[in-house]
Each structure stands twice: as structure tokens, then as C-alpha cells.
């Protein structure tokens, strides 16, 4: 028994054959150590071929800490897992092969090294965070261990947080807001502002300064047309004697590069010295270097599957002596001569980016065909900013200029078409993050490049070119086509149940044989060849004690199946969980259950259609008779009244209680609607001057006490709201109104109390202008923000002639030094428009709406009100 356990433990990698990709992070010493562990536990390691390529047709796993190696696309096409070296150590620690996804070196899997454990997070939010984290390469851990890297919590009071503090674990305790911001951007930002116990995210003001981060992904990729050949860094110069990146490669320089003969000679010498050679024949070259995405040579090279890059990419290879795909960085690939459709005529400026990031954006904007401007003017069309706080941002709001982050320009360039600025991630700005830290991480879309710049099939292809073309097509098929994981390889090998490819097994085997020279799997014998004798024990022909070859192969297949099942288990669990999801907030089913039900119905229909006509109806009738009747769901009563709540204390910090109470009210025929929708009753504990109260008062809604909702919930009966009309004599006296009179006036005004009255508001007013805008527009006012760069605006109203009585125009303002500077400018604008300027405190607007009667008293002038 002990020997059997020992055999099982040493057979951890029994079916695995590894190939290692050396790099700076994966040196020869570490490779030697890991190779010894792999061999010790039953695996085997294959060395690279003489030309440096990997024997992919013979390996099951490629160990690489980066996707920057030439055969990454080939591995993707062959569905060979590419994992970091940590996967081996994690498998050894667990005693079984670890999952593949968390150890992918693809930088687009932003949580590939995250092991998450959630603390005091509500269940719904917890499931969403865990699901999204796992989808992007992370792992979930119910308990906190030494391997846990992140704890998601709202405070330090949870037992998991206390344990991590007591044990001094290296994991980071972060707010859920960090995950939310990462999901919205599709990029992983720094956790520092979100770290508990004192997160800067909650402590600092949004306008506080943030240090501009270095742009680590832009090294050697800030320009598509570099002016000089950069010298290698000190570390590269010490560790490198000769170039090896060009070994065995033929390089062709296009005539559109326009480089001087001296520089060409230097590049030629470096290529020849590194084991490569130059050529002038496109069909013979391995790498084609050009400036623009046009011309017969570029099209021929791209169609034939050659590696196409520009001079910046070539210089990057020389500087770092490591191969990287020219599609990995936007400005390493030839630029479009006429730009990207839609960008012509656009004037774009940049804010809050510094150093290489600013240079990179300037070159990228010009490459799209737009015009980059250093300064911002009213004729600018877009502002690209790393934060939504700067003088340019304020001007963009005043001038109605589109304000986006760099992801908009990057993805527009990568997808070869202008992206819509309405996509939320392009206008998302985390409060304490400068987005310059995630710039330069967008990959070019090879599928879009092919469709636009080199469509169709080349007339003549060599066998090598045909193979490369098929490799690219198969790699594209084996990758996600959209979503946050776009372009990332799908592990089809271990997930055949969810295979979305259209190839049949035979077609795929044939294609694999044609491309890679791997023998196609033998077709399974028909069931007629495997008939079991009707009687007696199964007797095998030949020697009785002879072990057939199929035993070992079947055992091997069983082991493979078990390995695949262990890898697939988390996906199956998530799939089953999604199937069980029910309704959420009354908005319909989640995608998992809907998809599962659809598949079940399709399978049922398919079985019924395949059944014979003679027995089909009988089977259908039998199934119908045997199928238990579904329990009828109780129907909800019609909505008899819609209510808006303000100042309701029963649900403060009680999310689950709120959800349950809302359902109870709906069962009584009461629908709680959001502010801004049509409502019948406004529910408030007392007279208040909140935005909700004043907006719905302006609509003439009946105002009732919160006691009505409380008693409806407690008694589970629909009580008459007329018995709970709000009575608040104390606050009526305080505000100088009679609520019943104000409601009646509002119904008479029909939302036109301030119809046509121009009201301006300073951008820096206390509590912001948004609330005042909602109140003013609910009463028909013309509301506009007013800032330092607003300039002279069109006169909102005008008298019938120049001798008429001036109409009043209002400016809501405080007495801060910044706002005082605007007063003179506002008054001049009003006088030029033959209008009477009134600079008032915001209380004037609140009191007018509360009374539902337009009046003015000089006590509201800011000079008097704040005296």
C-alpha cells in the first residue's frame, strides 16, 4: 500500500512533457532546478532545437514567465498551455496539478496572480467579485492562508482581517472599490489607495494632487518613427555579449523607412553579427520592417504570415535582445498612412499625463490622423486625461468638450475604428488613481488589421507561409473574440464540453496534422466491433496472461480525463450555480440560467425531432402525462400607487431589510420608484429641503408621513394614505410656508413656476451644482453652470425692445475668493444683454420652490446673506 501511494505521489507529472522558455525572469539556474523537480515527479523535459525553437509537437506544457517568445502563437493554435514557472511549484505544493488559468503569463489576465478571500462583503457583491476575479485569472479561497494575496473587506473588524494582522501575512486588505474600478477599466490599477485600515480612497479629497506614475509599459514604444538607435541599458550591456535575437532570421527593410545609409549600415552590421541576414526578397524574409500599412510588399508579407513591424520595434529588439510581438505595443506596428477613419479633423489635447506617456499619446494621436494641440482652446473636440481634475478638465466641462481617458484612443487605434465615447470604461476615472500607470497595455487586433489592410488570400504561398497563415487562423479561433479577455487563448483542450469552434473532431485532427505534422488521433471503432458476448465470461483471444496494449492506453486516457475534470471542476461549479439563479430585483433571469434552460429546451426538441413519426406522438403524449404540473406562481397585484421616499430611516444600513420591505410593499400594490419618475405620493418624516422633496413637491405630489409606510409594513395591509398627510407645524413656521398651500400652488403651476427664468450657478458652489440644477429644471428654469472660462453666453431672454424693463438673471454663488472674481464678469455679461444681474445665495432658489411662488428680497443677495 505504501509503495502504491509513493508511486502515485511521484507520478504527479507522469503524463507531462515540458519545454522551458529562458528569459530574465526565468534564468538557467531556475530552469535547471525546476527540471529536476519535474523529472523527479514523473515528467520529462525537452530541450530547444538547434535553431532555438521549441519542439511543440512533442510537449504538453510550455513554461514561460512572459508571452514574448516567437512560438507563443503556435502554442495557442495547438492549444498547448503556456504557464508561469510558479505553476510547477504550486502543483508540487498541492500534490496535484494546479489550474492553468491563474498561472497564465498573458498580461491581459489582470488577476492571474491574485488569490482572493472575501470578508464582510454582502453575498450578492461577494459572488460578483469572486466570479469576475476568477474569469480574469484569479483564484478564490474561502479561508485565509499563506497563499492568500488579497482580502476584500469593508473594515478591519472581520475575523479574516484580524487573523491576517496577527499572523503578519503578506496579503493586502483592500476595499471592494478596487475590484470595481479594475473591472470597469479592464486593467489592474495599484491597490495602495484602497488599502485598509486607512484607505486614501475614502480619506482624501478628489481634487488632492496625485503623483504622476512612471509608464513602465512604454519603454522603447513611445514613437513609431524613432530618431535614433537607443543604447542598451547598463544591465543589458553587462549580461549580453552578442545579439542572439536575430539568430537564423532573414530581415527585410522596406524602402518607405527613409533611413540614412550610415544608420542602415549599423543595423545591417548588428543583424549579421547576431546570426541573421538581410534580404530584399519579401517571400524569403522572416521579418518585414516598414513604416506604413500599405504597398504591395507590406500586403504580400502580411498575407504570407510574416512578422511585420516598424523601425521602433526593430530598435526594441536590438536594445533588449529579447523577442516580442509587434502587435504587443501599438507603435511597434506600421502606422496607417491616412489615419483611422473618423479622426480626421479632430483636435485632441492631453492632461495629467507626464513624461513618456505624454510623448506616446502625442504620437498616437497624430498616428490616428487627428491633430494634437499642446494647449486647450474652445475648438478642441476631445480631452484625454488621466484624472478628471485639472484646469483643462474644468474648461472641458464649461465648453462641452468630450473628456475621456487614454483607453479610448488606444482601443480606437487597436481596433482600427473610432470607438464610441459612451462606453463607460472610457469615461471612468478612479478617485485616487492616475491612469498613466496602466497606459500602453493595449494589444493590436490582428483580425481587424487583416480585414482592412491585407484582405483576401495571396496568389502564391510557400509551404512555410501556408503553415504560418493557418497557425494565425487557428490561434484566432482558440482565443476569446470579445469581452475583457479579448485575444486571450482558450484552453479548448480541457474544455471540450464548452467548445464553440465549428470544426468537427476529424476536421480539427486533419488540420493539426497538416499544420504541425502531429499524427491525427485514430478514429474510434464502431460499436459493432466492441460487441460483448451474450452469455458467459468475456474471453480474450491470444495468451491468457498477455496484457493488451489498450490497457495502458485506456489507463492513460483515464488519467487524462481525471486531470481534465479537476481543471474543469470550478467552471462546472460556477455553471451549476448560475443555473440555480432566480430572479434578481425583478429584472429577469441571469445569463447562466437563461442559457442553461435554452440548451435544455434545444436538446429536448432535438430528441423529439429525431424520434420516428409513428412513436413520436405517443412518446410526446406519455411525457406530457408524466410531467408534473408546474406550480403556478402567485401573480402580483396591479400597481395602485407609486411613491418616492426621502429621509426614510427604517432602511439606513439595512440593505437586506430594504429589499424585503420593497417586496412586501409591491405585494400590497405600492411601487417604490426612483426620484425623477412619475409618482403619486412623496413620503417624508418631516418637512425637509432635499432634492427629492423639492423636485416632487414641484410636481404637485401628495406629501404623506413616513408613518404610512411603516404601518403598512407592520400590519401588512394597504392603509389609506389620506389619513397620513404630513403635518409639521414647527418646520412650516421655520420656513414660513403652509405645506397644503404650496402643494396646491405646485399643481396649478404644473412645473412651470420658473418657466424661462435664466439661472446660472458657479461650478464650485457648496454641494455642487447638480442638485440645484435638478430643482431648477423641475420648475422649468433655464439652468447653466458658470465658470472662469464660460465666456459671454447667448442672452437667455430678451425684452421686446431695447427700452423695455430689464429681465432678471440669477447667479447662485458663495463668497469664496474664486467666486468673487466671477461676479464682475457676470454683471458685465448681464448688462450687455439688457438684463438685471442678481447674484444670490442658493437659499433663494430653495425658498422660491418651497413656497411655489416667485419672489425676490435683497436679503438673498450674497453680499447681504453671508454678511
Structure, explained:
This protein starts with a helix and ends with a helix. It has 6 domains: about 10-105, 3-Layer(aba) Sandwich (Rossmann fold); about 115-205, Rossmann fold; about 225-335 and about 445-485, Rossmann fold (3-Layer(aba) Sandwich); about 345-440, Rossmann fold; about 640-750, Rossmann fold (3-Layer(aba) Sandwich), CATH 3.40.50; about 760-865, BRCT domain (Rossmann fold, 3-Layer(aba) Sandwich), CATH 3.40.50.10190. The strands form 6 sheets. It has a 4-stranded parallel beta sheet with strand order 2-1-3-4. The chain is built from 30 helices and 24 strands. Mean pLDDT is about 80; it is low at about 1-10, about 490-560, about 580-595, about 610-625 and about 795-800. The protein is an alpha/beta fold and about 850 residues long. Helix 23 (about 690-700) runs parallel beside helix 27 (about 770-780). It is globular and about 95 Å long.
Amino acid at each position: 500500500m505504501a509503495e502504491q501511494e509513493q508511486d502515485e505521489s511521484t507520478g504527479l507529472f507522469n503524463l507531462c512533457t515540458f519545454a522551458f522558455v529562458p528569459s530574465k525572469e526565468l534564468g538557467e539556474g531556475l530552469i535547471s532546478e525546476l527540471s529536476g523537480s519535474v523529472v523527479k515527479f514523473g515528467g520529462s523535459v525537452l530541450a530547444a532545437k538547434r535553431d532555438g525553437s521549441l519542439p511543440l509537437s512533442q510537449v504538453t506544457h510550455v513554461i514561460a514567465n512572459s508571452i514574448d517568445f516567437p512560438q507563443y502563437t503556435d502554442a495557442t493554435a495547438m492549444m498547448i498551455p503556456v504557464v508561469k514557472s510558479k505553476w510547477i511549484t504550486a502543483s508540487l505544493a498541492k500534490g496535484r496539478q494546479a489550474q492553468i488559468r491563474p498561472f497564465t503569463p498573458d498580461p491581459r489576465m489582470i488577476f492571474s496572480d491574485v488569490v482572493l478571500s472575501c470578508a464582510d462583503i454582502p453575498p450578492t457583491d461577494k459572488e460578483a467579485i469572486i466570479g469576475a476575479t476568477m474569469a480574469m485569472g484569479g483564484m478564490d479561497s474561502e479561508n485565509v492562508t499563506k497563499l492568500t494575496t488579497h482580502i476584500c473587506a469593508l473594515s478591519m473588524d472581520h475575523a479574516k482581517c484580524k487573523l491576517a494582522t496577527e499572523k503578519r501575512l503578506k496579503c493586502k486588505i483592500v476595499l471592494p472599490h478596487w475590484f470595481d474600478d479594475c473591472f470597469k477599466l479592464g486593467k489592474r490599477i495599484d491597490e495602495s489607495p484602497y488599502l485598509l485600515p486607512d484607505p486614501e480612497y475614502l480619506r482624501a479629497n478628489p481634487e488632492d494632487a496625485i503623483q504622476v506614475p512612471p509608464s513602465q509599459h512604454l519603454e522603447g514604444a513611445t514613437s513609431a518613427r524613432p530618431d535614433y538607435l537607443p543604447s542598451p541599458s547598463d544591465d543589458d550591456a553587462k549580461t549580453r555579449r552578442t545579439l542572439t535575437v536575430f539568430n537564423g532570421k532573414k530581415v527585410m527593410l522596406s524602402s518607405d523607412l527613409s533611413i540614412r545609409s550610415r544608420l542602415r549600415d549599423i543595423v545591417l552590421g548588428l543583424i549579421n553579427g547576431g546570426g541573421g541576414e538581410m534580404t530584399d526578397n519579401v517571400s524569403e524574409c522572416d521579418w518585414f520592417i516598414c513604416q506604413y500599412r500599405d504597398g504591395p510588399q507590406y500586403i504580400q508579407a502580411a498575407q504570407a504570415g510574416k512578422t511585420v513591424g516598424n523601425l521602433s520595434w526593430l530598435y526594441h529588439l536590438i536594445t533588449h535582445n529579447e523577442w516580442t510581438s509587434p502587435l504587443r505595443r501599438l507603435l511597434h506596428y506600421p502606422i496607417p498612412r491616412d489615419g483611422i477613419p473618423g479622426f480626421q479633423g479632430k483636435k485632441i489635447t492631453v492632461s495629467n499625463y507626464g513624461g513618456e506617456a505624454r510623448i506616446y499619446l502625442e504620437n498616437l494621436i497624430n498616428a490616428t490622423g487627428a491633430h494634437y494641440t499642446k494647449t486647450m482652446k474652445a475648438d478642441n473636440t476631445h480631452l484625454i486625461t488621466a484624472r478628471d481634475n485639472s484646469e483643462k478638465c474644468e474648461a472641458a466641462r464649461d465648453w462641452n468638450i468630450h473628456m475621456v481617458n487614454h483607453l479610448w484612443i488606444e482601443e480606437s487605434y487597436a481596433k482600427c475604428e473610432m470607438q464610441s465615447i459612451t462606453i463607460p470604461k472610457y469615461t471612468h476615472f478612479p478617485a485616487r488613481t492616475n491612469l498613466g500607470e496602466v497606459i500602453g497595455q493595449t494589444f493590436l487586433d490582428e483580425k481587424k488589421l487583416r480585414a482592412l489592410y491585407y484582405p483576401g488570400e495571396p496568389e502564391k504561398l510557400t509551404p512555410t507561409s501556408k503553415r504560418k497563415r493557418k497557425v494565425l487562423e487557428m490561434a484566432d479561433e482558440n482565443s476569446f473574440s470579445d469581452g475583457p479577455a479579448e485575444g486571450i487563448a482558450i484552453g479548448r483542450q480541457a474544455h471540450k464540453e464548452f467548445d464553440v469552434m465549428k470544426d468537427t473532431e476529424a476536421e480539427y485532427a486533419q488540420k493539426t496534422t497538416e499544420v504541425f505534422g502531429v499524427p491525427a488521433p485514430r478514429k474510434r471503432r464502431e460499436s459493432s466491433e466492441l460487441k460483448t458476448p451474450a452469455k458467459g465470461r468475456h474471453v480474450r483471444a491470444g495468451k491468457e496472461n498477455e496484457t493488451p496494449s489498450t490497457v495502458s492506453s485506456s489507463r492513460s486516457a483515464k488519467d487524462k480525463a481525471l486531470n481534465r475534470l479537476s481543471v474543469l471542476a470550478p467552471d462546472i461549479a460556477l455553471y451549476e450555480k448560475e443555473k440555480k439563479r432566480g430572479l434578481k430585483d425583478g429584472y429577469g433571469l441571469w445569463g447562466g440560467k437563461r442559457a442553461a434552460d435554452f440548451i435544455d429546451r434545444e436538446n429536448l426538441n432535438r430528441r423529439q425531432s429525431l424520434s420516428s413519426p409513428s412513436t413520436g406522438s405517443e412518446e410526446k403524449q406519455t411525457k406530457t402525462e408524466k410531467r408534473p404540473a408546474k406550480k403556478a406562481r402567485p401573480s402580483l397585484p396591479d400597481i395602485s400607487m407609486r411613491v418616492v421616499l426621502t429621509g426614510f430611516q427604517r432602511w439606513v444600513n439595512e440593505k437586506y431589510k430594504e429589499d424585503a420591505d420593497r417586496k412586501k410593499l409591491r405585494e400590497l400594490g405600492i411601487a417604490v420608484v426612483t426620484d425623477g419618475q412619475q409618482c403619486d405620493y412623496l413620503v417624508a418624516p418631516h418637512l425637509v429641503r432635499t432634492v427629492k422633496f423639492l423636485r416632487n413637491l414641484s410636481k404637485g405630489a401628495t406629501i404623506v408621513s413616513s408613518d404610512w409606510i411603516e404601518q403598512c409594513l407592520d400590519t401588512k395591509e394597504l392603509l389609506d394614505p389620506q389619513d397620513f398627510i404630513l403635518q409639521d407645524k414647527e418646520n412650516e413656521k421655520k420656513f414660513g410656508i403652509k405645506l397644503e398651500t404650496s402643494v396646491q400652488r405646485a399643481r396649478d403651476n404644473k412645473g412651470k413656476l420658473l418657466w424661462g427664468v435664466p439661472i446660472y450657478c458657479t461650478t464650485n458652489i457648496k454641494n455642487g451644482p447638480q442638485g440645484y440644477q435638478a430643482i431648477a429644471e423641475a420648475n422649468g428654469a433655464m439652468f447653466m453652470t458658470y465658470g472662469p472660462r464660460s465666456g459671454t453666453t447667448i442672452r437667455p431672454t430678451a425684452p421686446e425692445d431695447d427700452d423695455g424693463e430689464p429681465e432678471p438673471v440669477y447667479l447662485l454663488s458663495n463668497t469664496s475668493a474664486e467666486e468673487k472674481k466671477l461676479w464682475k464678469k457676470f454683471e458685465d455679461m448681464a448688462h450687455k444683454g439688457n438684463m438685471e444681474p442678481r447674484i444670490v445665495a442658493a437659499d433663494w432658489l430653495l425658498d422660491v420652490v418651497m413656497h411655489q411662488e416667485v419672489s425676490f428680497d435683497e436679503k438673498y443677495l450674497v453680499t447681504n446673506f453671508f454678511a
